[in-house]
C-alpha cells in the first residue's frame, strides 16, 4: 500500500489518504505543484480516521485539464494527483461530452485521421506500425478533450496504439473505436471500410415484425467444430459460411440452420473476447462473454488472426451468406462489463469514467464479473450506440441480444432501439432483463421490471420458462413445470401462452407480445433434456422424448417471440454440465450423430416452425388483439385448451385450437364440424375434416377451422 495517494474527486476538491506507517498518518499542511513552477497551498477541510489510514479532505483551486500536478505534504512526500471522481460530475460531462462521429481511425488513400477522446490526458502519442516500421506522432489536444493527428500516406495496412500520459504514468492502449486488430488484440488496425462493404449483401424477404421471428441461438465454433460437420475447416467464420455439407443425409452447419425454417440466427459473441488465445484456439474454449474490444471480430474464428482484414472480411461474408440463404442475423453483445478493468482500453484512456463506482469508491459489481459498464454516462451511451450503428452498417446485422441488459439503463436501450430501427425497420432489440444489483437506481435499470418504459424491447421471459419447463438453476433442477409433469401449473400455463400480456385473472408482465422472448433453453444452465434427467428421472427415454416434443410445440404455439437454443431440437445434452462456458468442444459442439439418432424430434421441430410461420394466429401483434382473440381454459385433469380467433385469408382459417395434454391418459373430444388437424403427435397435418379429436398422452394437438 502506498504511503500517500491523492485524488481529484470534484472541481475544487482533493481527497488524500495517508498510511499510518508514514508519520502516523499525520500532517499539518499540503500544497499542489505543477508545470513551470506552479505551487499553491491547499486548505484542509476535514480529517477522518479510518484505522490503518487517515483521510484528508482538501480544497484546491480549479485546475487545468491536460496538465499534470503533484500533491506534497508537510514531510516532503510528493505524489501525482490522480483525476478520479471528477470525471463523473455533471460539470465534467457538460464540458467534455463530444457528439462527433469521427473518433478512432478514418482511412483515406493518401492519409488517415486519428481521433481519441481523453480529457484528462497530459499528452497522447500515436504509435503507427507499417511493414514492421514503427513511427511515433504526438497528437494535438482540441475541443472537448479530443486529441487528433492526420498521418500522411497510405495506411491501409497499418496498425497502431496510443501512449496516454495521465495520472503520473504513461499507459499504452489499443483504440476502443477500432474495427479490427492484430492477434489477441495487441494493436488496433486501420481498416478501409469501403473494401469490406464491397462484399455483396442480399436482402432478406419476409415480415419485419418481431412476433414473426423464430430465433435460433448458435455459436460459430460449436456449429462446425465437430469433424462430422464435413466442412473444409472447423470452428471458423468461414466454416459456417460453407453450404451443402451433410452427415448421413442430414444437413450440417449453415445448411442445417436453413433446413430448420427459422428466421433469425442469434450468434453467441463474435466480437473480440479475452480468454481464448487466438493463435492457439484449440488449447482453450470460451463462449465469449468476457469482452475485450467491442467492434473487433473475434480472431479465434478467423482464418488468420494476425491479419486484421481477414476477421472483418470473414464475419461480413458469414452474415451476407446467411442473408443469401434467407436468414437474418442477431448478434449477442456484452455491454454490461469488461473482462478486466485494469487491462481495458477504457481504463487506460480515461480512468474512473467508463465503469460504475459505489459510494466508497469501489467498482460496482452487479454483474458478478467484477465491474459494471456505466451506460448512463453520455460518452459511454454514445459509444454503445455508435458500436451498434457501426455493426449494422459494416456487417448488415439485423438485431441484437443484450447480455445482462438489466445492468444497462432504460434511456440507453431506448436510444439503441431508435438508432437500429432508423437503419433497419426490422431490427430486433432484446436481452436479459434480470434485475441485477448494480449501483444504478432501480427506476433507471433496463430490467424486466421497467418493461413499460422500453416499448418494443424484448426480455427473456423467465415466467414462461419456469411455468412450462420448471425452474432452471442448479438448486431447483428437480422442480417440474406444467409440461414436465406439474399439473398444478395448468392455470399459470394460460398466462405463459398469452405472452403475459393479459390482466387479471392472468399474470400480466408485458405491455406487448414482442416483449416476451419465450426460451425454455439457452446456452446458460442445463439443457431441457439434461434437466429432465433430474425432474423426470423416474421416466423412461420414450416418455421424455414425448415431453421434449411438447416443450418445443408449446414454445412455437405461444404468443410472443419463440427462441430455440441449438440442439434442443435433437434433445441435446451437455452431460448434465449446467455451465459449459469453458468446457470445450466435446461438450458444446453440435452433435450430428445425436441429431441423426433423434431425427424424429428434429423433423417434428421443423413442422412446428412451419406451422407457426404459416398460421398468423400464433403471431398476434399487440395486447389488444390477444385479449380479443384468445380463449383460454383448463379442462379435465389439467389439459389446457388455447383457442385463437383470427381470420386468416392466407390459410382460409378463422379459429385455431391448441390442446396440450401433459397427462398419461388419452383424451377424446367432440367439436362442431369443420375442424381439421394441423399438427398431430408426429407434427403432421391432415386436411380431412373431423369433429372428433383424439389427444394421446403427453401430446400437443393443434386444430384449425
Structure description:
By secondary structure, this protein is α+β, with helices and mostly antiparallel strands. Among the domains are: 4-83, Immunoglobulin-like (Sandwich); 93-173, Immunoglobulins (Immunoglobulin-like, Sandwich), CATH 2.60.40.10; 627-704, Sandwich (Immunoglobulin-like), CATH 2.60.40.1180. It contains 17 helices and 33 strands. The strands form six sheets. Strands 18-21-22-23-24-25-26-27 form an eight-stranded parallel barrel, surrounded by four helices. A seven-stranded mixed beta barrel has the order 1-2-5-4-3-6-7. Strands 10, 11, 14, 15, 16 and 17 form a six-stranded antiparallel sheet that branches. Helix 8 (378-395) packs parallel to helix 9 (410-423) and helix 10 (462-468) packs antiparallel against helix 11 (490-497). The N and C termini lie far apart (76 Å). The model has no long low-confidence stretch (mean pLDDT 97).
And the CATH topology of the domain at 93-173?
A: Immunoglobulin-like
Mean pLDDT: 97
Strand content: 25-35%
Low-confidence stretches: none
- The first-level CATH class of the domain at 93-173 is given as Mainly Beta
> Which structural class should the secondary elements be placed in?
alpha+beta
CATH architecture of the domain at 93-173: Sandwich
Number of helical elements: 17
* Sheet having the most strands: 8 strands, parallel, barrel
Quantity of strands, as a count: 33
- The helix content is 10-25%
CATH H-tier superfamily of the domain at 93-173: Immunoglobulins
What order do the strands of the largest sheet run in, or round the barrel if closed?
Answer: 18-21-22-23-24-25-26-27
Shape category: elongated
Radius of gyration: 29 Å
Amino acid at each position: 500500500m502506498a504511503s500517500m495517494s491523492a485524488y481529484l474527486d470534484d472541481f475544487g476538491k482533493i481527497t488524500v489518504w495517508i498510511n499510518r506507517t508514514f508519520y502516523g498518518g499525520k500532517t499539518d499542511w499540503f500544497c499542489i505543484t505543477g508545470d513551470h513552477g506552479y505551487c499553491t497551498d491547499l486548505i484542509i477541510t476535514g480529517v477522518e480516521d479510518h484505522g490503518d489510514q487517515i483521510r484528508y479532505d482538501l480544497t484546491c483551486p480549479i485546475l487545468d485539464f491536460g496538465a499534470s500536478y503533484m500533491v506534497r505534504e508537510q514531510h516532503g512526500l510528493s505524489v501525482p494527483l490522480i483525476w478520479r471522481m471528477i470525471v463523473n460530475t455533471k460539470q465534467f460531462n457538460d464540458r467534455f461530452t463530444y457528439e462527433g462521429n469521427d473518433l478512432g481511425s478514418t482511412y483515406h488513400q493518401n492519409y488517415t485521421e486519428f481521433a481519441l477522446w481523453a480529457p484528462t490526458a497530459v499528452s497522447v502519442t500515436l504509435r503507427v506500425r507499417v511493414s514492421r516500421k514503427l513511427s511515433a506522432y504526438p497528437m494535438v489536444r482540441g475541443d472537448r478533450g479530443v486529441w487528433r493527428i492526420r498521418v500522411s500516406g497510405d495506411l491501409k495496412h497499418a496498425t497502431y496504439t496510443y501512449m496516454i500520459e495521465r495520472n503520473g504514468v504513461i499507459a499504452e492502449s489499443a483504440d476502443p473505436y477500432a474495427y479490427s486488430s492484430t492477434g489477441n488484440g495487441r494493436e488496433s488496425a486501420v481498416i478501409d471500410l469501403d473494401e469490406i462493404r464491397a462484399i455483396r449483401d442480399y436482402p432478406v424477404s419476409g415480415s419485419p415484425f418481431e412476433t414473426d421471428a423464430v430465433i435460433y441461438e448458435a455459436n460459430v465454433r460449436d456449429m462446425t467444430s465437430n469433424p462430422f460437420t464435413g466442412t473444409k475447416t472447423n470452428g471458423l467464420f468461414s466454416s459456417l459460411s460453407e453450404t451443402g455439407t451433410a452427415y448421413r443425409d442430414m444437413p450440417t452447419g449453415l445448411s442445417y440452420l436453413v433446413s430448420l425454417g427459422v428466421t433469425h440466427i442469434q450468434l453467441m459473441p463474435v466480437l473480440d473476447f479475452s480468454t481464448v488465445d487466438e493463435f492457439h484456439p484449440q488449447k482453450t474454449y470460451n463462449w465469449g462473454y468476457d469482452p475485450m474490444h467491442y467492434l473487433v471480430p473475434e480472431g479465434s474464428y478467423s482464418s488468420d488472426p494476425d491479419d486484421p482484414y481477414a476477421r472483418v472480411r470473414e464475419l461480413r461474408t458469414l452474415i451476407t451468406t446467411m442473408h443469401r440463404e434467407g436468414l437474418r442475423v442477431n448478434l449477442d453483445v456484452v455491454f454490461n462489463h469488461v473482462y478486466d478493468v485494469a487491462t481495458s482500453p477504457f481504463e487506460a484512456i480515461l480512468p474512473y469514467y467508463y465503469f460504475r463506482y459505489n459510494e466508497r469508491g469501489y467498482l460496482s459489481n452487479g454483474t458478478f464479473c467484477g465491474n459494471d459498464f456505466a451506460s448512463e454516462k453520455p460518452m459511454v451511451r454514445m459509444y454503445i450506440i455508435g458500436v451498434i450503428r457501426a455493426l449494422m452498417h459494416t456487417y448488415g446485422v439485423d438485431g441484437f441480444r443484450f447480455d445482462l441488459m438489466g445492468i444497462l439503463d432504460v434511456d440507453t436501450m431506448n436510444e439503441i432501439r431508435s438508432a437500429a430501427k432508423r437503419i433497419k425497420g426490422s431490427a430486433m432489440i432484446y436481452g436479459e432483463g434480470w434485475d441485477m444489483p448494480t449501483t444504478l437506481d432501480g427506476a433507471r435499470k433496463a430490467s424486466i421490471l421497467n418493461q413499460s418504459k422500453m416499448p418494443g424491447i424484448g426480455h427473456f421471459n423467465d415466467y414462461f420458462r419456469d411455468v412450462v419447463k420448471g425452474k432452471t438453476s442448479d438448486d431447483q433442477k428437480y422442480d417440474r413445470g406444467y409440461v414436465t409433469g406439474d399439473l398444478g401449473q395448468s392455470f399459470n400455463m394460460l398466462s405463459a401462452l398469452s405472452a403475459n400480456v393479459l390482466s387479471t385473472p392472468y399474470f400480466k408482465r408485458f405491455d406487448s407480445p414482442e416483449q416476451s422472448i419465450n426460451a425454455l433453453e439457452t446456452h446458460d444452465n442445463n439443457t431441457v433434456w439434461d434437466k429432465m434427467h433430474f425432474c423426470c428421472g423416474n421416466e423412461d427415454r420414450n416418455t421424455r422424448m414425448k415431453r421434449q416434443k411438447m416443450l418445443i410445440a408449446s414454445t412455437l404455439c405461444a404468443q410472443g417471440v419463440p427462441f430455440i437454443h441449438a440442439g434442443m431440437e435433437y434433445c441435446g445434452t451437455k452431460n448434465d454440465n449446467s455451465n459449459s462456458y469453458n468446457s470445450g468442444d466435446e461438450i458444446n459442439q453440435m452433435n450430428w450423430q445425436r441429431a441423426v439418432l433423434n431425427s424424429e424430434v428434429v423433423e417434428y421441430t421443423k413442422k412446428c416452425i412451419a406451422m407457426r410461420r404459416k398460421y398468423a394466429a400464433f403471431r398476434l401483434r399487440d395486447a389488444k388483439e390477444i385479449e380479443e382473440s384468445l380463449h383460454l381454459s383448463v379442462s379435465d385433469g389439467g389439459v389446457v385448451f388455447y383457442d385463437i380467433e383470427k381470420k386468416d385469408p392466407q390459410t382460409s382459417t378463422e379459429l385455431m385450437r391448441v390442446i396440450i395434454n401433459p397427462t398419461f391418459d388419452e383424451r377424446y373430444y367432440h367439436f362442431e364440424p369443420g375442424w381439421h388437424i394441423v399438427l398431430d403427435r408426429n407434427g403432421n397435418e391432415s386436411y380431412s375434416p373431423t369433429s372428433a379429436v383424439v389427444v394421446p398422452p403427453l401430446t400437443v394437438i393443434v386444430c384449425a377451422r
